[in-house]
Amino acid sequence: MAAFRQPSDRVNFRHVASRTKSNYRGKPITPIEAPTGLDPKLVALGRRLFHDPRLSRDGTVSCASCHDLSQGGDDGQCFSIGVDGQPGDINAPTVFNSALNIAQFWDGRAANLRQQVDGPIHHPKEMASDWAEVLQRIGNDASLTAAFASAFGGPATAERVRIAIEAFETSLATLNAPFDGWLQGDDDAVSKEALEGFELFKRHGCISCHQGEAVGGNLFQRLGVMREYFVASRELRPSDLGRFNHTQREQDRHVFRVPSLRNVALTGPYFHDGSALNLEDAVHVMLHYQVGADEPDLAEIRKIVVFLNTLTGDTPKETL
Ligand code: HEM
Ligand code: HEM
Description:
Its main location: periplasm. Helix content is 37%, strand content 2%. The protein is built from 13 helices and 2 strands; from the N terminus they run ααααααααααβαβαα. One protoporphyrin IX containing FE is lined by residues 201, 204-206, 208-210, 221, 223, 225, 256, 258-259, 261, 264, 267, 270-272, 279, 282-283, 286-287, 290-291, 304.
């Protein structure tokens, strides 16, 4: 059957043409695009909720306690501290650019940001709360209740809380990273050393897992592809099982969602177990366990780290 060009094809064509013109240097990493179509009222309400400790059982912990937006969107700890000072057993990822993730959490157990919200609200070592408590507290706050009425035309519900937080998180895109400038054709946006680091990032195959708009976040991979990462040197934690915990499939044992490397210079310690305290160590681990380098070269590691530093974008000002 002859192909009939719909008007929508032309729109797509223009989109492709404009991308080509903006010169992504033919690479599988693309610049972060500003989110569109967000309702400012929802975003503002989501921002309030994100910073509200009343979402936790004892009113001491907000989302921002573990996802500090002035510090890269995480908490700088190996393991986060929840209500009653309890430590968890997995490293908190950043919430910046999290809308680009294929699924949420290291094991991908939440399909999207909306579903993710129930996790920390109920987690006994995070907020240890429940929807009845949260909604009662919101209902007792006239100003917050008015904000729900204005955004949704009605009172707070669990789903409305999820939707508002999702809208806020979707707004958390970090634009204008120097590397994005380079991708768009600005030769002076990054140093020669950073470009050498990027060449190494490609040559070693890092880019096969960390690619796309978020430089990661879009596939699942085993930690320890080339060498066994989980050796007998430390006891296994339940969280080390990764995606297996969610699917119970043997092939998902030690499989994790590949993290985005956007803003990675700000989000140490690294890995689901917080075991790498700085980026040099993290790159060393990746070269050894994911890529199979026997003795990773320190000069190469340094250059890759210089490249990774060019992935730091602007913190959206209105988030803080
Ligand atoms: C994971 C948002 C509260 C610690 C995440 C993720 C998002 C998020 C979007 C997934 C990111 C990714 O997979 O890359 C929120 C929101 C919260 C909240 C909206 C409030 C409702 C907290 C609190 C803590 C915390 C209070 C610490 C006590 C963590 C940890 C993970 C995580 C440890 C990783 C868990 C895992 O993968 O199993 N959070 N968070 N979060 N957050 Fe939060
Ligand atoms: C984690 C860089 C190769 C899959 C990380 C992290 C960095 C990094 C800095 C820590 C991010 C964070 O904790 O927020 C690199 C570099 C590579 C490379 C520089 C090349 C030398 C690869 C490859 C794969 C891969 C080839 C897939 C086969 C992963 C996974 C994690 C990760 C699954 C999360 C591990 C965990 O904590 O459970 N990578 N990576 N990486 N990378 Fe890579």
